[in-house]
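In the current project phase, the collection of sequences with tokenised folds has grown. One resulting record follows, to show the layout:
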Amino acid sequence: MYKYIYMESKIINNDIIRRKIESYIRGKSVCIVGPAPYLEKHTRGSIIDKYDIIVRLNKGINMEKQPEIFGSRTDILYHSINQPNENGGKLNPIMLDKTRIVFAFPYLDKQTKSSFQNGTYIDYNTIHNDILKNSCCVDKNEYIELEKYIGCRPTTGLSCIIDILKMKPSYVYITGFTLFKDGHAHIYRKDANMESNQQLINKFITGKSTHNLYLMYCYMKNNLFKNNIELDKELIDILKFDINEYKQTKLLEDKDDEYIFYNYINNNEIIN
């Protein structure tokens, strides 16, 4: 089976390949697999593999190495464009033998108003030409409107989910997402541990990240409970987190909702 990696323009065949991917997804069942470590405690490989199309993120293609846990295919890979290992990970043209590649962020120059102050064109220039010729990206105008709507830059995962839903699949199952509450699976990120995840959470709490987990939580809570979307139990638990009840239980009625949410994501450690 042929697999994809997803991107937008500056990619020579972007429009043609995007139409092919839209046609490929339309009417199919899709499983979107995130990198959360709780998946390592289960054997969901057979559940994941039953879907027509399996979509992963960034270094998630490594999950194929443990098919009984994570599933055996990556039909589409959404990538952040940024190739250092602590980000999206290195892209190799050999991936195109079995995976379609879509870039989760469009080609943006410096003049385009977005959360990317210097655009994305520099990162695109690091991508191998064979990949650029055979990949596509999310729609530029729709992406910019999405940033405005959410109020921040979406993660690769959220950009992927929204893009897939626009392509009218028959059914979508989402697993492996916790809004970073428990970090990353080791097969996704080898240096993943409690300390590295705490450093990541601290970036969100202190506003040093381009992503705002609270705003993305609000968006997902309001938009992902639909008839043709199934969320796994772990994500449902997070999106149904009751902020008001938490305020009362922890005697934090004087704190705003974002503060409360980050305490919850921070494993109930009170933020000073």
Remarks:
- The chain is about 35% helix and 10% strand.
